[in-house]
């Protein structure tokens, strides 16, 4: 992250012999820092564990199958974000600006809520391996409660901070489109929290295929909803976030349903 920040200014605006690359410079800074981080991670693993030896190909294939399911799941999540951004920018530049401000806050809250998912994944996996079903279900209940509570708090904070976010991040020309879409994003935070929390619980039990299928179904419905929005209609940006809320609702409902079906 530090390298990304350090590279942004010279690559975007130019410095000394480095020309100004604009948006391409921002992309280059991100790509360079990502590769640097990946190389650093590989070096640390090699230094502490050494090189791989005695690779079991059947285990490698299991890993690739799990990775494939998660790739589809995460890829479809990214697809929804791309489709919503495309829809917002087709509405107009003001809608695109308002949407971007809302989405960045939404992404921040999603990363915050992922903390419960990671904790739930670790604990559920531990008790799953130990064969302790009672503790596994208890962890699921606690994770869902904390996720839901955090979602309510984050949603309330978003509503209370509407004016501050509008002044700091939304251009004046886009503020008329911001409020109602922001409201929808805020009130769906509890559902968002449950969707991410239950994702972590299912990771812990190894239900990667289930998560993939849930995301396929939710994204198919969400994508259809986004594509049929009339960009020229009044409140089109709000409709984009209503469809996003529906996508979140499907994921949350099926996530909870899957947990309730545990042995």
How would you portray this structure in words?
- The chain is mainly α and 263 residues long.
- Helices cover 85% and strands 0% of the residues.
- The chain is built from 10 helices and no strands.
- Helix 3 (57-91) packs antiparallel against helix 4.
- It is globular.
- The mean pLDDT is 93.
Mean pLDDT: 93
Uncertain residue segments: none
Percent range for helical residues?
A: over 70%
Structure annotation, total helices:
10
What is the strand tally?
Answer: 0
Gross morphology: globular
Note the gap between the termini: 42 Å
Secondary-structure element pattern, one letter each: HHHHHHHHHH
Structural class per helix/strand content?
A: mainly alpha
Q: How can the largest sheet be summarized?
A: none
Q: Over all CA atoms, what is the radius of gyration?
A: 21 Å
In short:
The protein is mainly α and 263 residues long.
Give the key terms.
263 residues; 0% strand; mainly alpha
Give the SSE map.
Layout lengths: L1 H12 L9 H27 L7 H35 L1 H38 L2 H28 L1 H8 L5 H13 L1 H17 L2 H20 L8 H25 L3
């Amino acid at each position: 992250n530090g390298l990304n920040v350090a590279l942004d200014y010279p690559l975007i605006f130019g410095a000394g012999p480095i020309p100004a690359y604009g948006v391409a410079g921002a992309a280059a800074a991100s790509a360079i820092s990502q590769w640097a981080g990946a190389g650093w991670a590989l070096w640390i693993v090699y230094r502490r564990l050494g090189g791989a030896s005695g690779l079991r190909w059947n285990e490698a294939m299991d890993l690739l199958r799990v990775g494939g399911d998660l790739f589809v799941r995460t890829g479809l999540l990214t697809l929804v974000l791309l489709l919503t951004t495309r829809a917002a920018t087709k509405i107009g530049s003001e809608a695109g600006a308002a949407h971007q401000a809302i989405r960045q806050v939404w992404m921040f809250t999603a990363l915050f809520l992922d903390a419960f998912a990671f904790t739930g994944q670790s604990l559920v996996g531990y008790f799953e391996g130990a064969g302790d079903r009672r503790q596994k279900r208890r962890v699921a209940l606690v994770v869902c409660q904390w996720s839901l509570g955090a979602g309510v708090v984050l949603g309330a904070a978003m509503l209370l901070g509407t004016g501050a976010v509008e002044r700091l991040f939304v251009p004046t020309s886009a503020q008329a489109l911001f409020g109602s879409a922001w409201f929808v994003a805020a009130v769906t935070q509890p559902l968002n929290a449950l969707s991410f929390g239950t994702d972590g619980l299912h990771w812990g039990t190894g239900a990667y295929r289930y998560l993939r299928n849930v995301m396929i179904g939710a994204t198919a419905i969400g994508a259809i909803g986004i594509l049929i929005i009339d960009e020229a209609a009044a409140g089109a940006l709000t409709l984009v976030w209503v469809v996003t809320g529906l996508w979140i609702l499907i994921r949350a409902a099926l996530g909870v349903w899957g947990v309730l079906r545990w042995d």
